[in-house]
Write a structure and sequence with these properties.
By secondary structure, the protein is α+β, with helices and mostly antiparallel strands. It contains 16 helices and 14 strands. The strands form 4 sheets. Strands 8, 9, 10, 11, 12, 13 and 14 form a 7-stranded mixed beta sheet that branches. Strands 4-3-5 form a 3-stranded antiparallel beta sheet, with helices on both faces. It starts with a helix and ends in a 6-residue tail after the last strand. The N terminus is likely disordered.
Length: 419
């Protein structure tokens, strides 16, 4: 019956498109990525293998398409678990546990994807002209209403009110609240009835969840609002917040999903910089230090603050200019364009004289040499926001003879696992 409340068993093109467009993201815990990142990533808590997550996503898309409901998804779930040998998942070992877990996965994904589809429709210009106000509705079928959700029932605000950036239902696991669009006349009538302003303290943050009071952890965003954002943006933020060993391990896990997006983001900056021949402070994450390299650096007394490797368009512009004036020693533009891919296969070294991380790229007779300054506090524009960040930054690059790096005592080769 709850399915009917959300229209779960009726194919809905916008909902299906939202589910299908997500990237299957392996992760140990559902909360490992920012709440809004769930618009771009399909995750299931504890599912740490990409092919496992991809099969679960495909099952969810299929059930949204054919409308066969929860029991059909439960059969899918059992088949997928058996196929991949997935063990240790929460709820495993009992019929009740499996029923609870499959219900949470199914209901949460169906509710949020349906909400994302409805929100997309409600923001279409023609629809906004007819129904510019949104109303919060609490489901009267819920046996144990949540106090805050019940208090928001009937609240009617203009569609661009900040309330709906964090309180667009569903607002927690099992939440059956919904948002509907209403006319200006209905919105004004609600205001006269005392339902035109959110209650005092609506945006107060609960320290236990990091979300506004009454909102479940990870639900403090409007479903679909971040669908156009690159997932790499969320991963960049996460890598900055994580200790280097953890961030390095996370990237290795996510690389099959995100490598193409990282390359695309980087190549866009290369193209913009080469075309304009000026720098505006744009900064892109071009690499993540491998776990073995992080460990090897720490063993030599160089503890990275985090595992990210960035490059600003300021330094990139100097490098591109060098290709025009110093043809004998400058890295070709095509090497800079493919830098994220090339760095994955590069050999890492420690420059013992000034504690720089060096990457050697085999280009045939000569090597490309990238100098990365570690733990630097640099100013730049990160994902459009100007800030100072402490991380690792590519400073220069050039062509050298292999003997320049491989021989002598200045450069010490660091272990790095390939693949």
């Amino acid at each position: 019956m709850a399915d009917a409340a959300f229209g779960f068993n009726t194919p809905f093109d916008a909902q299906i498109a939202y589910l299908r467009a997500k990237l299957a993201l392996p992760t140990e815990r559902w909360g490992e990525i920012a709440a809004a990142a769930h618009d771009r990533a399909f995750v299931v808590a504890g599912a740490a293998k990409a092919d496992l997550v991809a099969d679960l996503q495909a099952a969810m898309v299929q059930r949204a398409t054919d409308g066969l409901g929860l029991e059909a998804f439960r059969r899918d779930f059992r088949d997928i678990v058996a196929k991949h040998g997935w063990t240790g998942w929460t709820g495993e070992g009992s019929a009740e546990g499996e029923a609870w877990r499959t219900r949470v996965i199914y209901k949460t994904n169906m509710a949020t994807s349906y909400a994302a589809g409805r929100r997309q429709q409600m923001l279409e210009p023609g629809y906004v002209r007819l129904r510019p106000f949104w109303r919060y509705l609490h489901s009267d079928t819920v046996m144990h209403p949540r106090e805050h959700h019940l208090a928001w029932h009937g609240l009617t605000l203009h569609h661009d009110h900040p309330f709906f950036k964090t309180h667009f239902a569903p607002n927690g696991i099992g939440c059956e609240c919904r948002i509907v669009a209403v006319s200006r006349r209905e919105g004004e009538a609600s205001a006269r009835a005392g339902l035109g302003e959110p209650p005092e303290g609506w945006d107060k943050i609960d320290p236990k969840t990091g979300a506004p009071v009454g909102i479940g952890k990870g639900f403090d965003h409007a479903p679909g609002a971040a669908s156009g954002w690159p997932l790499q943006r969320f991963v960049d933020d996460k890598l900055l917040a994580l200790d280097a060993p953890i961030g390095a391990a996370m990237w290795r896990e996510l690389r099959p999903v995100l490598a193409a997006e990282r390359l695309q983001q980087w190549q866009a900056m290369v193209a913009d910089t080469a075309s304009a021949m000026r720098a505006g402070g744009a900064t892109v994450q071009v690499h993540t230090v491998a776990p073995e390299t992080v460990q090897a650096l720490a063993g030599r007394g160089v503890a990275l603050e985090n595992a990210g490797v960035w490059m600003r368009d300021t330094e990139l512009l100097h490098a591109i200019r060098d290709t025009k004036t110093e043809r004998g020693s400058a890295l070709p533009v095509e090497v800079w364009r493919e830098l994220p891919r090339l760095l994955e296969a590069a050999e890492p070294y420690l420059d013992t004289r000034d504690e720089a991380l060096i990457y050697a790229i085999d280009l045939g007779e000569r090597w490309g040499k990238l100098v990365v300054r570690v733990n630097r506090n640099m100013k730049g524009r990160f994902n459009g926001v100007r800030a100072n960040l402490v991380s690792n930054f590519v400073q220069t690059g050039g062509l050298v003879e292999p003997s320049n790096i491989a021989e002598g005592s200045q450069y010490v080769r660091l272990a790095q696992k390939k693949g």
